[in-house]
Design a protein that fits this description.
TMEM272, mainly alpha, transmembrane helix, 84% helix, elongated
Length: 212
Amino acid sequence: MTQDRTQQDCQEQSVSQMMCCASKCMKILMSLISLVWIALAIAEIVIGSVYLNSCVNQPYIPIYLIVNGVTVILISILSMVSAFRPNKFVLSLLTLLSLFWFAWLITGSVWTFPLYPDFSPCNRVVYLFTFSILIIQWIILGLSLPMIIIKLFTILVESSELSRCVSRTLERVRLVKGTESIERYALIAVCQQNDDVVSAGRPSRVIDVMST
């Protein structure tokens, strides 16, 4: 029984370490992608402002560049903030901005793609830049789908680990203390603050913490 328990704890620890490594790598990758997006967004704002009145047959193309640039900068900054310091308000705002960005991407595509290849008298620079930005964004959106799926999977696994930690701790505390009057949120806080409890499944550490 003890051996089975030890093997189970080792397996849980290995899974937790793998997910932790994947989560850190995801944060670094997302930060690098955000920096690239910010650079492109600044270029969009500059070109859209310079050629604001240079696309007679579709005057909304420069406006698309400016609004898209501002939106992308906000999304990139909020993404980096939420990656290292998760916050419900930031996540909610990020979700709304992402939905707006997707809708704005579709709108810009409707304004831009029908003019190709005969986009004259629209300025060549602003049109081809917008056309290229739209293509890049659609490609990145398609490539980002696996990353989004991995991120969701990571969140589910971490939630499952936390739930198991709380369940084991409740059972051990009932056995040791002989009471069921345990604050569940306090246990969750302790589990989150002690990575060894979540990863290695040592609820006795939680009992020691709660006793002090």
